[in-house]
Amino acid sequence: MSIIVGFVPTPAGEAALTAGIAEAQLRKQDLFIVNSARQGALVDKSVATEDVMAQAAQRAADEGVNATVLQPPYQHDLADEFLDLAREVDASLIVIGLRHRTQVGKFILGSHAQQILMQADRPVLAVKANGTQS
Fold this sequence. Notes:
The protein is an alpha/beta fold. It has helices at 11-27, 50-62, 78-88, 103-109, 112-119; strands at 2-6, 30-34, 67-70, 91-98, 124-128.
């Protein structure tokens, strides 16, 4: 069993990483830190650099957590492919960060977080950047 964190280089992503590390410590499980870009995308602000991902893994290691960084490109639906990865690594918990969005923004753009929350076949911990959990 393991913990899987959907990480993006934002305050919400940092909150998810912090919560994921804490859960991995508590449960004595390995941590998978996942950051994906759409395959073929030239620019994607949600993609973390190798240095940022290495720092994330080091944060986990500093807390005594064995962490693996994964940056698989996705082709079709990010949420579906993330959930497939959660099954592959036998995740006991999915950790994601949430950010505030307007109703119109949710309607027009959709929400990967909402898809993960609704479609996951295992527990999901959703955290906000200010540290509160949902």
